[in-house]
Amino acid sequence: MAGLEKDSELDLTDQSLKVEISDALSEQEKVKFTIHTKTTLKDFKQPDFTVIRDHDEFIWLHEAFLDNPTMQGFLIPPPPPIPDFEEPRYKLQRLSENEATYTKEEKQKFKAEIEAEYLALFKRTVSLHEVFLQRLAAHPRLREDHNFHVFLEFDKELSLRNKNTRERLNTIVKGFSKSFDENVKYRDRKDLDGEFDQEKTFYTKYHNNLIVSSRSARKLANAHRYVASAILHVSFNLKALSTMEYTDCNRTLQKAGDTLEKIRVSINYTVYLAYYCDVIYLFV
To answer: N or C: at which end does the chain have fewer Cβ atoms within 10 angstroms?
Structure first.
């Protein structure tokens, strides 16, 4: 296909447009990414600038590429997944609720594990968003896109930006084209292809079943979180009992605690699988 570019063909050593996420801040339901750009390209107004973007604006940029007819035939990088820190937040909440039942050492250990898990997820989220921008910047054609320049240069929220003449014209043309297609072109058209109707019915049912399965996976993941939390509590209590003096079943209690810990790890793995099933639902 004309204009098709593979990642292996990109010049990743080109420093004429360098984009990186220099900082990120989690604010309740959103993550704010500080994007720092250095460039020697004359298409940009300044050689060095910084903007703040959230995940929704990354999605806007990806959709802008998909909607741009001049970008047809190019491999557009997939958008970064939505930030999800529900798992460590849930664990931290459970730790706070059961704080009185833990010793000081156990509480510190749990808190350190939760913080480490949250930090790992946060770093992965930032990395995926940065890679998305760097793949666009490394592409000799995609980096020339007007919306990409706006994303990197406009120092306010994109929702506050006034559209230029070309964008307003494109909006009018799209609206007119859609109205024409709906009211004139397909007014009296009937598809007599039975095989197409069968395929359409199949894919519609498949799509609906995928949505239902994704929601069920999310419910299953939430249920597993409760089970994993309960097992964690029982496991540490058993281990605490095994350290007491004058106990004849120390070894048995220790093995039981270790076994429950392995079960908890296995359940967490299932939770992550369910989470990725839910991510698939976001793109259907």
So the answer is: N
- Residue 256: CB atoms within 10 A of its CB come to 17
**So what's the pLDDT on residue 283?**
45
Taking the C-alpha atoms of residue 3 and residue 15, their distance in angstroms, rounded to an integer, is 22
Helix, strand or coil, per DSSP, at residue 109: helix
- Model confidence pLDDT, tens digit, residues 60-77: 999 999 988 888 888 899
The two three-digit tokens of residue 209, written as one number: 């079943």
In sequence order, what E strands does the chain have? 17-27, 30-39, 48-53
Determine contact, residues 129/21, Cβ cutoff 8 Å.
yes
134 closest CA partner among 126, 43, 44, 282: 126
Output the pTM of the full model.
0.56
Residue 249 — φ and ψ, nearest 5°? -115, 35
Which secondary-structure segment (H or E) carries 254? Answer: helix 250-282
DSSP structure class, residue 185: I
If you search the block for the tokens 């666009």, which residue do you land on? 136
Task: Compute the 3-state secondary structure of the chain and give helix, strand, coil in percent, each to the nearest 5.
Answer: 65, 10, 25
Return phi, psi of residue 35, to 5°: -105, 120
Question: 99-135: b or e for each residue (b if 16 or more CB lie within 10 Å)?
Answer: eeebeeeebeebbeebeebbeebbeebbeebbebbbb
In 68-193, where does DSSP find H-type helix?
86-97, 104-138, 146-153, 165-180
